[in-house]
Amino acid sequence: MPLPVPTVPEGVDPAWLPDEAFRPLGTRRVLVRGSGPLVETVHGEVAAACARFGGRVERDASPEPYDLLLELTGDDGGEAFTCERRAGLTTVTATGAPGLLYGLFHVVRRGPAAFAEDHGLQCHRPGLALRMLDHWDNVAVHPVMGQVERGYAGGSLFWDDGRARGDLARIRAYARLLAACGINAVSVNNVNVHAVEARLLTDRIDEVAALADAFRPYGVRTHLSVTFAAPMVLGGLPTADPLDASVRAWWAAAAERVYAAVPDFGGFVVKADSEGQPGPFGYGRSHADGANALAAALAPHGGTVCWRAFVYDHRQDWRDRTTDRARAAHDQFAPLDGEFADNVLLQVKHGPMDFQVREPVSPVLGALPRTRLAVEVQATQEYTGQQRHVCWLGPMWSEALRFGHEGPAGPVVGQRASALVAVANTGDDPFWTGHPLAQANLYTVGRLGWQPDAEPAELLDEWLALTFPAAPRRLADGLRAVLSGSWRTYEKYTAPLGVGFMVQPGHHYGPNVDGYEYSPWGTYHFADRDGVGVDRSAATGTGYAAQYPEPWARVYESLDTCPDELLLFFHHVPYGHVLRDGRTVIQHLYDTRFEGVAEAAEAAEVWASLAPLVDGARHRRVAERYEEQLRGAREWCDQVNSYFLRKSGVPDERGRRIY
Ligand code: GCU
């Protein structure tokens, strides 16, 4: 029986799957062949599209004249598919049911082009096997972090004030959106696992099972964040020592019960020894010991441990110039290469600090050739405008995935890694992502997981064409104009040249140049009257630059070769230091702040001009956010400029108003 297509609840935006996106498919004669649950999902999709647009779908009949054949020819569970078009017939074939589902969405994405010119056999397979969203959702409202930690899109899709929401219709629609952009896994609770959330692993596993049931028809596997201390807090053991036999037995039994409830459970996400979470250090054990203990419990069931490498001293003394937070993950994890079990993924943030608008690519991603790696990015815009500012991060993520750790010829991050994990930017907001244009981030991250070397601009165009299927040229051009350069615009009006932070402590929204300067978090800029930046060279600084293999260690070490956009991440320089474009650091800082504000204002104007072409609710929501973005951009510009004028005493060459 074809599975009915989950419809978005009344008042909720269809995002990149409006009915209209299915018109080209829905007017055709389609044959679906194969059997199994995901084939029923595919059949349901095609049937709904055909019912709406006048096409016809057959099941397993012999192929007389059809426009599209969707055929499952095996049961290997794979995600790959092939597509060809000959003599008027488009054929999608897969040897695994997930492949057929991805093949269907490939056809949807291509729109009319899927039925236009003939082409030979094309093979499509995911670049990264695991493409996961980590929801930082709390089950119970956290006194400081609320329902969703770093969430800017309303409440949680899953949890509401201590209970499961139970609105599975919306979750089914969510699963469908995720599958359509290539996401195949979700973790449904925060990496900071508090007391209530810890119990999802045991006596509250039925709530997880209900979510898994809603995600399963679209090929999305469910994962859980667990606390390393679970054997103690849930099991009443006196220790969580990963080498203790009773602890290992507890994890094995816990996993057994999880799989009894969720047979295709994906695995655990673990934040250990990080920002106050418990971990193996408490028992004098290594992170490999810790990860492997959990991996052993999951291995018989085919589960994976995503073990986060976000481990650093968050209680450092700002007076201590020898400790460098950027170094921490590499110092901890590089020596452990080869020690992790096969079903461990070491989950590494793309930069060494914490999702700043500009960071170098983490050296950890090149340092463990015998370890399976997951690259973690943040779709939720904690440090990039919190979904009040437009900041499409596709180009940044793409740069990270394309970064080569062994020189231009060596494998790039996107080839080395096995997974792309994004901290989710969704919530129960009617637009899913708070800012309607932030949907583009979610779409892009899924598609980059599938194809890490994709051109981000092409992915933006895909998102555009799906979300606004009948968009006149002017609308498409306008959307491209406001989104494509938005990351660089945001960078221009916030912290300069890779130095990072300078945000309000705690909530991280808005400027505060010295907000973290004398704090224990390890995020400093060291501005004084003469200069600014962190010396991370090997010769005179913290030695972080030497964590990279050549040629990068050399490139970052020297002021002559370090890219300007990362200058202050790697070096402390005088304000008069001259950049490649001939401007001094201080003048660049002033100029780019003003430029950033001007660009944001221009984008707001472009958006205003699109009013007649966009539905009212969406247009208003974005317009309101632009007002806040403009206010915020000016505040950033004025605070950063005033701060540095006062520190340096160097006036703006162009005499603009600085306070
Ligand atoms: C950031 C963020 C935290 C989060 C942490 C993490 O520091 O501000 O809210 O818990 O990252 O990635 O674990």
TrEMBL record:
Glycosyl hydrolase family 67 C-terminal domain residues: 433-656
InterPro entries the record matches: A-glucoronidase_C_sf, GH, Glyco_hydro_67_C, Glyco_hydro_67_cat
Domain Glycosyl hydrolase family 67 catalytic intervals: 124-432
Cellular component aspect of the GO annotation: extracellular region
GO BP terms, alphabetized: xylan catabolic process
GO molecular function ontology, one term from the record: xylan alpha-1,2-glucuronosidase activity
Name assigned to this protein: Alpha-glucuronidase
Organism listed in the record: Streptomyces griseoviridis
Classification lineage: Bacteria, Bacillati, Actinomycetota, Actinomycetes, Kitasatosporales
